Amino acid sequence: KFEGIENCGCYETGSGNSLKARIFAEYRLLDFLNIGFHAGYQTKDGLLDNPDTAYARNLNTGDVELVQTNRQLDVKFNAFDIGLDFNILIDEEVFNGPLYLTLSPSFHLQQSGSYTQTEVIDQPSGAAFKVDDKVFFERVNAADDFMTLNTNVLNLSASLYNNMKIAHNLYFVQRLGVSNDMDMLLTDADISTFNIFASLGIKLAFDVPKEYIAPIPPQLPIQPLPIDPEPTPILTLESNFDYDKSYIEVGEKLVATPPIVLAIFFDKNSSEIRSLYNENNTSKNPIEDHNNIFDKIVGILNKYPEAKLVLQGSTSGQDENSNLNLAKDRVINAKAVFMSKGITSNRITTNYSITPKIVTNIQYEQGLAENRRVEIDLVNANSIEFVKKTDYKKLFGFIDFTTEFENISGKVTFKNNMMHSAQDVKSGQINTQFDRDLIANKGDFRVESELRSGELIERSTENVEIEKISVKNVELKTDEFEALLMFDFASSNLTDETKILLRQLVELLPEGKTIVVIGNTDDIGLEEANKKIASERAANAINFIKSNTAKTFYFEESTNTDKYDETTPQGRYLNRSIIIRLK
Questions:
Q1: Is residue 570 in some structural domain?
Q2: Helix or strand (DSSP H, E) at 229
Q3: Spatial separation of the C-alpha atoms in residues 489 and 258, rounded to whole Å
Q4: How far is residue 576's CA from residue 574's CA, in Å, rounded to a whole number?
Q5: How many separate domains does the chain show?
Q6: Residue 124, preceding bond cis, omega within 30 degrees?
């Protein structure tokens, strides 16, 4: 059923005819394959039958009777036809020409269509429709143009395609095949066509001019030229440790223990301890080192037998449905880990609340993630040892290398176990220097060097004897000192631990040194506000130092742009800080 037709059941099948005219062009792509394009115009006529019944007058008896009728639907469609032809060679010689199998996808661009619905009396033969004394043996129920044409109809066809040669470059074309509409002809009715078709045509072929290639005269055999052997590439490497120029510095240096982020973080709506906290991480990166928080706190508690632990569990508030039990479960699970590592229950106090004492900005997802934590508070112990003097012993070594290259075309690289990376070198002298911490690396050692060009490698080993190197006693070394002191969220007030570190620093630091204070903050919130807090943190630290010592120091103040990873809560904790360096 479609718009305009009288509802009279379903038309299932019908038959008709189609007339098509088109032009085509094809190109021989391969010996067995031609590819072509066609365009044309076609009409489709069809007649569909649907047996039915109706009341009509019997002309023999004059009575109105129920008679057998046939409701016929006569449809017409007109469309442009464009598409591709893929002609696959079957036989070179059939009916004086090649025979192809053609596969053609086409689009029928429908332009117009119409229908006429007629009701015809089948039996009895004496029955007719009578209107106003007029007798009809058939009547028209509906007739109009289609209003719901599908403008683009995909059609696929397959055919046998023969080219019968009738003159030079002129062929009589015969085609026999089938085609089927893959889309419906109307948008509001399921109607499509399946065709068996035959076509005739004329094809004109164009020759491609062939390039004349002159025959190649016979030539005498080519005698191979003598091949000189390739020269052997040579690399040489000699090393000489300069004992006269090298020296060892001995004394003390000022160091600050790296900070600890005193919090255990949890996933949203979870009280399970993250698996990362159970892994033994040996990284020196403070962010990854945070995963060792349980072992670090246990180490402090074992060092200070009188120390105790206060654990404060919390949630991110409404983001976790203000679930107080969740905060409780988090602190219970954290306590269980400490107890499994040997800390007795009487040394651990647990508290919990919906939100932490100091709430990170809940307008940002980073702030919500930080609030899902258990905070760690150490009683009668410091989380870090702050500033201290340690032994200092460092070697400043100088070693010279002599290299020679022969028959080397590519680049040559040089490296040894004292260098951070390899470097490109030329033939001649290579002067290198390095430093080595003799506190961490005691005794004699070897410098192992390598010269490389592709697969060619030359190595040398130099044994360094520490006793042969001169020793210099130096004053307190401060140029490697760096301390990171953390602050609470959105605060520039110095914590008690920070004040202790600063007092220790000025007590141990010789007068006249330059103290560099670098303010820092996380990226949560507005940039201008964060810059202001970073600057205030540095200024407050400088003012505290000035008010707590009679020594004369010089100060440099700046803000930090080289930050820890902001995608982790421990990284943001570490960024809420100042960095102190010494000159």
A1: yes
A2: none
A3: 20
A4: 5
A5: 4
A6: yes
Q: Are 77 and 43 in contact (CB under 8 A)?
A: yes
- The range of the structural domain enclosing residue 424 comes to 234-242+390-473
Count, residues in the chain? 583
490 and 466 belong to one structural domain: no
Phi-psi region of 407 (alpha: psi -120 to 50; beta: other; left: phi over 0): left
Residue with tokens 């760690």: 376
Residue 164 is inside which H or E element, if any?
Answer: strand 152-167
Residue 275 is given by DSSP the state G
Between the alpha carbon of residue 517 and those of residues 275, 340, 493, 495, 541, the distances in Å are: 37, 41, 15, 16, 8
Residue with tokens 């107890």: 339
φ, ψ (nearest 5 deg) of residue 523:
-100, 5
Q: Given the DSSP bridges, would you call strands 554-559 and 514-519 parallel, antiparallel or unpaired?
A: parallel
Per-residue pLDDT reduced to its tens digit, 52-75? 888 888 888 888 888 888 888 899
> Please, which residues have CB within 8 angstroms of residue 537's CB and are 6 or more apart in sequence?
487, 492, 519, 520, 521, 577, 578
- Domain assignment present for residue 555? The answer is yes
CATH number for the domain harbouring residue 547: 3.30.1330.60
313 in Cβ contact with 331 (< 8 Å): yes
User: In the predicted model, is pLDDT for residue 547 greater than 90?
Assistant: yes
Q: Which residues pair with 134 in a beta bridge?
A: 131
Which residues fall within 8 angstroms of residue 564, CB to CB, at 6 or more apart?
A: 286, 287, 570, 571, 572, 574, 575
Q: For residue 289, give every residue at least 6 positions away whose Cβ sits within 8 Å of its Cβ, in sequence order, or none.
A: 258, 281, 283
pLDDT digits (tens, 9 = 90+) for 361-393: 889 999 999 999 999 999 988 655 678 889 999
Q: What are φ and ψ of residue 438, in 5° steps?
A: -90, -5
Q: Which two tokens stand for residue 543?
A: 């003012």
User: Is 251 a domain residue?
Assistant: no
Per the domain annotation, does 215 fall within a domain? Answer: no
Query: In angstroms, rounded to a whole number, what is the distance separating the alpha carbons of residues 25 and 508?
Result: 95
Say if pTM beats, i.e. exceeds, 0.90. no
User: Helix, strand, coil: what percent of the chain each, to 5?
Assistant: 15, 45, 35
Question: Under a CB-based contact definition with an 8 Å cutoff, are residues 148 and 2 in contact?
Answer: yes
Per-residue tokens: 269: 């709506």
Closest CA to 79 of 46, 106, 105, 112: 112
DSSP code, position 477? B
Phi first, then psi, for residue 570 (nearest 5°) are -65, -30
- Indicate whether 502 and 456 sit together in one domain: no
Q: Which alpha helices (H) appear in 256-353, and where do they start and end?
A: 286-289, 293-303, 324-340
Q: What 3-state class would DSSP assign to 290?
A: helix
Q: In the predicted model, is pLDDT for residue 298 greater than 80?
A: yes
pLDDT at 209: 61
Contacts 24+ apart (CB under 8 A), 466-472: 466/248, 466/395, 466/438, 468/243, 469/243, 469/246, 469/247, 469/248, 469/395, 469/397, 470/246, 470/247, 470/248, 471/247, 471/248, 471/249, 471/250, 472/247, 472/248, 472/249, 472/250
> 486 and 458 in one domain?
no
